[in-house]
Amino acid sequence: MRVNEKISTGIKGFDLTIDKLRLGDNVVWQVDSVDSYKKMIDPFVETTLKENRNLVYIRFGKHKPLIEDHPHIKRYNLDAKKGFETFATKVHSILEQEGKQTFYVFDCLTDLLEEWYSDLMIGNFFKVSCPFLYELDTIAYFGLIRNVHTYSTIAEIRETTQLLLDVYEVNKNIYIHPLKVWQRYSPTMFFPHLIQGQEATCITASSEAAQLFSSINRVENRLDYWHIVFSQAKETLNEDYEKQEQTKRLLMSLLIGQKSKMFDLCDKYFTLKDILTIASREIGTGFIGGKSVGMLLARKIIEKHGNQQLLSHLEPHDSFFLGSDIFYTYIVQNGWWKLRVKQKTKEGYFQYAPELKEKLLNGVFSERIREQFIQVLEYFGQSPIIIRSSSLLEDNFGNAFAGKYESVFCVNQGTPEERYKEFEQAIRTVYASTMNEDAIAYRMNRGLFEKDEQMAILIQRVSGDHHHQYFFPHIAGVGNSSNLYVWDKSINMDAGMLRIVFGLGTRAVDRTVGDYARIVTLDNPMRMPLISQEDIKKFSQHDVDVLSLSKNVLTTVKRDELLKYDLHASKTLFARPDEETANRLHELGYTDRYPYPYILDFHSLLKDTNFPHMMREILSLLSKEYEYPVDIEFTVNFDDNNEFKINLLQCRPLQTSGLGKQIEMPKLTDESSCFFSTNGNFMGGNIRLPIEYIVSINTEEYLNRNEQGKYAVARKIGKINSVLKDKNVMLMGPGRWGTTTPSLGIPVHFSELSNMNVICEIASQEEGFMPELSYGSHFFQDLVESGIFYVAIFAGQKDVIYHPEWLKDKENLLLDFLPQSEEFIDVIQIVKTNGMNIYSDITTQKLICK
After folding, report:
1. Which helix (H) or strand (E) holds 264?
2. How far apart are CA 167 and CA 144, in angstroms?
3. Mean pLDDT confidence for 2-7
4. 3-class state of residue 368 by DSSP
5. DSSP string, 332-366
6. CB neighbours of residue 590 within 10 Å
7. Residue 387: which H helix or E strand, with range?
8. Per residue in 584-631, pLDDT tens?
9. How far, CA to CA in Å, does 181 sit from each of 131, 175, 185?
10. Domains of the chain
């Protein structure tokens, strides 16, 4: 129950006017200067000290200190430069620590504009701090410089605070004009009051009031400080180079972030005009995020250094950027900030994520933001768009976050109301993906959980065209400028590689079920991976991801069904007729019932066009300027003359283990002394790695389990991943690790095998388990970033040695590490090795485990 104690402002006359302060009051003073604010603080501080109350000064401004050091006043110095979340979380922590009935004086809130440049975020800070102060029965003083903040920010503060008071200094007189005094009223309370010492004289005469207010300057059109800064920057375009560069770097710090390697690259390539163009396409305020920065920077590098032929092949973009401040505003305005603070602690990091994710999926956006969303949708009309995550840490040096956050296609068909609803929910889905299990585990494992991970969003027009009732690009894929994961010693690793598919690129970045992207080594695009000629059809793409315009969804269509339509380009670029299957269908009389069969081998594309050459040039150019290997996502669209445009969707530093020194490989005089050996089919460079434990899955017993039982095995692997952390462990299992289909392998999340040193995927053709190296996929990125070595064992193939019986005689230590796991003892085995090592040499493509 709230205590009704009345508290003095330190000015007796004004206490009578407002019937004093109450515990829980937040008091906001609108002033013309910090000095005026200090004149309100001084009597309050003096009275508070006399009454021996707990007084705290929150210092963050660049103005002079409002309170001198005093033995009975606790002072906290905060750094607003670290951003809204860090600042607000620190204040929350202080309030919790100081407890109930503490009195506070905050520096002038307007000073936060110098660090945040956003009125919106000052309003957000007040909205998250004020209710908590009220709960704790505090008294808190805040100052705002008048006419600086937007009307909407003042409206939010007025709505949230208990007292809002104007302070005027006119002709050396001080006047206080109460605008809001919560739960108190008198006939004269809301008149201006002349303050003279301890006296407060109410100004009721119309002539005096008119004279007072007519002398006060008012600004009718108050822009957000963010927009003022960018508007003033446009005027700098006419000034000298040094002034433009200085202004550019200021704007970059607002849009791109603080000093970093990416910041330096952007500084090198972007002009002030470029930055202003980017800002003109931002919705809201704040950073545009790593994915947006990477895409824009890559395009600028090509624009500056590419030859005319390359530039003629580049498709332009017209993307929009949803500023990161909107993410926080969405959380604050929906009342979830306390939950967010609890989730950001070590104890609550995983515990509260599901609840916060659910809320993020179901929140409401403000009318102001909704109106800007509508304008973006009106701009794109009914063109399909994609809503892509672009967090602050994403796509940066050291942290790719590949596949950790969502991207959502909006097919964008239907009425304006239907299209808006789909668009808004896509944004919610991306926001909610910040709480995905893999994403938060990734941040925790890489020591990033305390860092601000604001979510900006990149809104892109989907590259492609209408084909019958479907929309898709001809080609999509990923490219790596360095190909360290080779299967043939003749491959030039510096030429780069591509992983391409027909249709949308979703099948290039994910490990698809029973389907295979085409791997292209750019030194010799016609070189095929390690599959036999008769398997080319089997290990090719059979399904195509497209946007269904009639059903308004992302869907998958059979390759042959799609290839019967007009592609606005020659089909032979991408596919060749499958005459063997066509003849068989003809013999069976199915000619009219089935579309003509094709094989998607991209033979003509790679042999008869300069597409491979263009991609090699792009990757080489980008990696040279990054001074680091790069990873890109792209689409390609052809016209009727087989001319093409490349749309560069994304570029980031490629996380790679590197070649390392060449390893002296042991000689195999006796094959039986070797656990396994293979030529090729591994990823991770040159290593000599000791193995302490092997965790293996019994294929037969795994197959005997129902689907629920197979998922239970995956979850148990996650537990083993935790208990064996910091040990050198090799994980072995049938088919694909991380598949979403248990019949093809073990459906673990990446976070459930993230501590392993080596993972082995073992082929079992009889049961349908086939590994897939997945060069360039998100799974590939996870392996490389985590430093996990990968091996595929195709038992029975030439040059492959595998002795699984070696494990059968070893003691199973599963119950030693995880008691009460008896039901898994037949399917999961943990074995302690005796001096086992894995050796690999990428030049000879030889791997030995013994």
Report:
1. helix 261-269
2. 10
3. 76
4. helix
5. HHTT-HHHHHHHTSTTTTTTSHHHHHHHHTT----
6. 11
7. strand 385-391
8. 877 777 766 668 889 999 999 999 999 999 999 999 999 999 988 898
9. 16, 16, 7
10. 6-214 (3.40.50.300), 224-280 (no CATH), 287-293+319-461 (3.30.1490.20), 465-549+562-653 (3.30.470), 671-849 (no CATH)
